Q: What sequence folds into this?
């Protein structure tokens, strides 16, 4: 099989397995094997398909699609924000996350980074993948990183739809004061930015991750980050 076609196949399988959670197939799967078993199987399949994608990406030829002066340095500027979103998202209670729907019952369910976006981790992934696809500018990178952009951005919409369907009025109350696209609810006056709630610790974790990844980039990915 052509290496780019192989990468495209791996990427399609990766996306398909992730979007199963937003189809009618999810409910019978959970009912037949149980929630914990389903989440375990889902995690295993995710790691396997990501591994397949990475393997195919590493063997794909570099077919340059564009070259823009200075664009290779864009990840150095964008990645701190992406990693702060991921770190703050993971470290915050979020009603849109798995197993955290109980947070909707709080008097103020959207706090910290959730005031900025309901899906900070997804947007962090989208920023990471998007800026790397632009910086690399080749066909294999467009397929590989583009798949993560599609997963992250489409995933936010699918999560919202699934939560709205299953959680009803409580989700509607939460959605009314938050936004999918970062800062939209704040700009529209439905929420406010609170740096104190986000916290120095979460920002620091994101920046430490950034420093570690930049320094370890040659060993982890075979190329320097700058």
A:
């Amino acid at each position: 099989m052509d290496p780019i076609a192989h990468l495209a196949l791996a990427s399609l399988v990766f996306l398909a397995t992730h979007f199963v959670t937003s189809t009618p197939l999810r409910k019978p799967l959970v009912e037949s094997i149980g929630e914990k078993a389903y989440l375990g199987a889902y995690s295993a399949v995710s790691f396997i398909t990501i591994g397949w994608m990475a393997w195919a990406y590493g063997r794909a030829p570099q077919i340059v699609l564009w070259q823009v002066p200075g664009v290779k340095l864009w990840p150095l500027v964008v990645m701190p924000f992406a990693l702060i979103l991921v770190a703050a998202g993971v470290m915050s209670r979020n009603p849109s996350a798995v197993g955290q729907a109980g947070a909707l019952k709080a008097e103020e369910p959207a706090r910290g980074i959730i005031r900025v976006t309901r899906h900070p981790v997804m947007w962090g992934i989208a920023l990471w993948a998007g800026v790397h696809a632009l910086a690399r500018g080749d066909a294999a990178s467009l397929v590989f990183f583009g798949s993560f952009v599609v997963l992250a951005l489409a995933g936010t919409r699918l999560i919202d739809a699934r939560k709205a369907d299953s959680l009803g009025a409580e989700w509607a109350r939460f959605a009314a004061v938050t936004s999918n696209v970062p800062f939209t609810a704040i700009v529209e006056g439905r929420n406010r930015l609170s740096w104190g709630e986000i916290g120095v610790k979460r920002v620091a974790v994101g920046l430490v991750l950034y420093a570690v990844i930049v320094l370890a980039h040659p060993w982890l990915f075979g190329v320097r980050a700058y």
In short: The chain has two domains: 1-61, 62-221. Residues 139-167 form the longest helix (29 residues). The chain has ten helices and no strands.
